[in-house]
Design goal:
Rossmann fold, Alpha-Beta Plaits, 3 domains, four-stranded antiparallel sheet
Length: 415
Amino acid sequence: MSQTIQHIAQTLKRDIEQNATQGAKTLIDFAKQYAATNKLKHEALILKLSYTKAPEQEQQQIVQTEMLDLVNKIVQDHLNNAQSEATVAQQAAVQKVEQYFAEQNAPKDIVFEANGIHKTYKRSGFSLRDINLQLHLGEIVSVVGENGNGKTTLLNIVAGELLNDNGKLTYPAFEGGKAGNITWYRVKENIAYIPQELPAWGDSLKQMIQFEAAIHGIRGKDNDLEVDYIIQRLGLEEHLNKRWRELSGGFKLRFALAKALVWKPKLLIIDEPLANLDIKTQLIVLKDLRNMASSFRYPMAILLSSQHLHEIESVSDKILFLKQGEVSFYGALDQLGAARQYNTFEFNTDLNTKTLKQRLANLPYQKLYHTGISHVITTDLNINYAQLLQYFLDNDIPLHYFRNISQSVKKLFDL
């Protein structure tokens, strides 16, 4: 077994060195099969996204090196686990415990449930209608849709900041969360809500985090330990002496996360966490959110809204798409487009549409159009990603960007 994984790892590292884009995809499959922890699997996903988003060659080389380091880490952890009977036994015991609770106590895993939620704004006439939603510990659910379609309204209702007009809310895991008889001050003791517009902090940044921990019952030495831990966890040590207005948008969000997470809420709600963040900070925040949701000791449910579709797809367990106040889609990404009749691809090229159509003359496709930013082409299901890419190369169609969006949230928008 050790020779097998080491041989595969050596081949993978050569692939990464020769073609990091393709190697990143293979790295994800390698991590899924051999990684000892979910954290390593998520790191593979984040590295693939990081390489795609890296604007300069120097940054791509840094990510490429991190990919190679991750391969070594996966191999070492896998071999250590294989050599340790105690570790194997412990993992088996944990799996049995998790399976037992999943089967016997499934309702306790549900943090929030909504059935038939309605909310109408009489002045504007906008209505959020018939919303059904479940949030589980360890799960990230992302709410997407065009502006003005009810994303923030839904988040405010779940956070207890806005009362719904009709429908039923329940928080099964929280004291006082019984449907029809919710004790809001008890429920909110378990919810951390970070709005898009962050209020300014007036006092010392560290003191604000300490105060938040204190009002949730974390005092004395425990307060110091928890605050210091979350500050180090989010890399905030060098910024503690700054004023709020001196912080970048990314570090304001990280401090808001520290304030919310220091007391370990069971439900974290964030409105547009990636807005106004640079690419590097977006990746850091996404990685932190995925790790926090999947924490073994303190798992939490995370509900967030975002317009950054490609980024949140890499970390979300489920997507809820709102269109004109109604749910257009709700489920896992692999359910999206499962019953489709065509494949859909998005790409950028220097060619104009007329020239592009001439070079696509021998390709059977259904539709080709330009969104104003990129081209979108739909093909029969028998034409896959690799085949279409090869056709582009063979017919001298230069590409700056190419992506299969057949099962992407992007298809839900009217492009």
